[in-house]
# Entry
Amino acid sequence: QVQLVESGGGLVQAGGSLRLSCAASGRTFSSYDMGWFRQAPGKERESVARVSRSGYTSYLDSVKGRFTISRDNANNTLYLQMNSLKPEDTAVYYCAARLTSNTIVWGQGTQVTVSS
# Structure
C-alpha cells in the first residue's frame, strides 16, 4: 500500500511563498487521484487542490490563482506551490491519495503558518 511523506511547511510572512512536497511509495502512483487538504484550528478539513490520474486539476475557490498542484509521476511526487500566502492560509496541510473509491491514504501533515 502507498505511503506518503510530506515536507516543505514552515513559517512565512504574508505575501510569501512555499512549496509543499509529498513523496509517495508504491508501484502504481500514476494510477492514483491525488490531493492536498488543510485543517485550521476549529475548522473541518477541507480540500485545497486535486489532480486526477489523467492530469485534471481543481482548486478551492479561495486559493485559485495563487496555488498550483502538480505531479511528477516519474519521481512519485506530488507538489503544491503556494504563492501570495495570506494569514487565512494558516493550517496543517495534508497530502492524500485515493487508491479506490473507498480507500484514501493520508500523509502525516505539515504546518503552514502565515504571519501578518
In short: DSSP finds no helices and eleven strands in the chain. The radius of gyration is 13 Å. The mean pLDDT is 96. Residues 24 and 76 are 5 Å apart (CA to CA).
